[in-house]
C-alpha cells in the first residue's frame, strides 16, 4: 500500500482551515472544467462516481445534478464540512486522500479528480489507487494545470517579481523521480504507464472572470504556493506586492470592474482495463 510523502504532508498543512478562503478565490476558477471532467468520465444518471479532492463539492454537486450516485472525499476537514453542507443528502462525503482511499476494490463506475494531481506527492500511486476502486471498463478523468503556465498563472509570478519579493530558499516540490512533465504528452504517458487504456488528453482554454478583491484574497489568505510566498514577506513588501498587483492587473480589468484572465487546463481520461 502506498503512503503519503513529505510533499503530501506539506500540502495538508497548507490547506488546513482554508476552505472559506479557497471558495472565495480559486474555487470558481477550478469549477470551469467540472462539466467536461464528468463528460470525460462518462458520468450519467445512476453512475456510481467517486470525486477525489472534492474541495467545496463543486464537481460532486454537478454529478448529483446528473442523478449520479456520488461519493466525495477530501483530505482537509474544513473542505469536507463545506462539501457536506453543499451536497446535503444528495451525496456522501468522507475525509480521505490519495494514495490510500477507504473503499473496496472495483466499487465505482467512474472516478474524477479535478486538479488533484497538482497536489499529490506520488502521482502514479494516486492514479493506481483510482484504478483500484473503479470497475473494469469504466473511466477515470483528471485535470491538471499545464506547464508552461497559462497567462493567468504567469501573472502572479510577474507581480511577485516586479514587486521585488523574496522567494524562500526551500520550496516543497514533488520528488523528481516521481514527478511527470505537466504537458499533454507527460500526462498521457503517466496514465498509460499505470495500466490505463484508451488514454485521451485535451487542452481546455477559457477566460476566467473574477472580482479583483476575490482574486487577491487567495494568496493573501495563504492559499497554495502563492500564499506561502506571501506569508514569507515582511509587511512593507506585502504593501508593495498589492500596489504591483493593482498596476499589472489593470490591463485585464473590464468596464464592469472584473478581471478577465486567460488560462488553460489539461483534461485526460482513460479506461480501466
TrEMBL record:
Keywords linked to the UniProt accession: Methyltransferase, Transferase
GO biological process, one term: methylation
Pfam entry (one): Methyltransf_11
Methyltransferase as UniProt keyword: yes
Gene3D superfamilies reported for this sequence: Vaccinia Virus protein VP39 (3.40.50.150)
InterPro entries according to UniProt: Methyltransf_11, Methyltransf_Superfamily, SAM-dependent_MTases_sf
CDD domains: AdoMet_MTases (cd02440)
Domain Methyltransferase type stretches: 50-141
A GO molecular function held by the record: methyltransferase activity
Domain of life: Bacteria
Keyword Zinc on entry: no
Name recorded for this polypeptide: Methyltransferase domain-containing protein
Source organism per UniProt: Micromonospora tulbaghiae
Phylogenetic placement of the source organism: Bacteria, Bacillati, Actinomycetota, Actinomycetes, Micromonosporales
Amino acid at each position: 500500500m502506498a503512503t503519503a510523502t513529505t510533499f503530501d504532508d506539506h500540502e495538508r498543512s497548507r490547506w488546513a482551515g482554508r476552505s472559506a478562503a479557497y471558495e472565495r478565490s480559486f474555487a470558481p476558477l477550478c469549477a470551469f472544467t467540472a462539466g467536461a471532467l464528468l463528460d470525460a468520465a462518462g458520468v450519467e444518471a445512476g453512475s456510481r462516481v467517486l470525486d477525489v479532492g472534492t474541495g467545496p463539492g463543486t464537481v460532486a454537486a454537478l454529478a448529483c445534478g446528473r442523478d449520479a450516485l456520488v461519493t466525495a472525499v477530501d483530505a482537509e476537514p474544513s473542505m469536507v464540512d463545506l462539501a457536506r453542507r453543499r451536497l446535503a443528502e444528495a451525496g456522501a462525503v468522507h475525509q480521505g486522500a490519495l494514495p490510500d482511499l477507504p473503499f473496496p476494490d472495483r466499487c465505482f463506475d467512474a472516478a474524477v479528480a479535478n486538479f488533484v494531481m497538482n497536489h499529490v506527492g506520488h502521482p502514479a500511486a494516486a492514479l493506481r489507487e483510482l484504478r483500484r476502486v473503479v470497475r473494469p471498463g469504466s473511466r477515470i478523468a483528471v485535470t491538471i494545470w499545464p506547464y508552461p503556465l497559462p497567462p493567468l498563472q504567469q501573472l502572479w509570478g510577474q507581480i511577485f517579481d516586479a514587486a521585488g519579493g523574496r522567494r524562500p530558499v526551500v520550496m516543497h516540490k514533488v520528488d523528481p523521480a516521481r514527478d511527470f512533465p505537466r504537458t499533454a504528452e507527460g500526462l498521457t504517458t503517466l496514465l498509460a504507464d499505470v495500466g490505463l487504456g484508451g488514454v485521451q488528453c485535451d487542452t481546455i482554454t477559457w477566460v476566467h472572470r473574477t472580482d479583483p478583491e476575490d482574486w487577491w484574497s487567495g494568496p493573501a489568505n495563504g492559499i497554495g504556493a502563492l500564499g506561502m510566498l506571501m506569508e514569507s514577506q515582511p509587511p512593507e513588501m506585502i504593501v508593495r506586492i498589492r500596489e504591483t498587483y493593482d498596476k499589472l492587473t489593470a490591463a485585464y480589468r473590464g468596464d464592469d470592474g472584473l478581471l478577465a484572465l486567460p488560462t488553460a487546463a489539461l483534461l485526460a481520461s482513460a479506461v480501466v482495463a
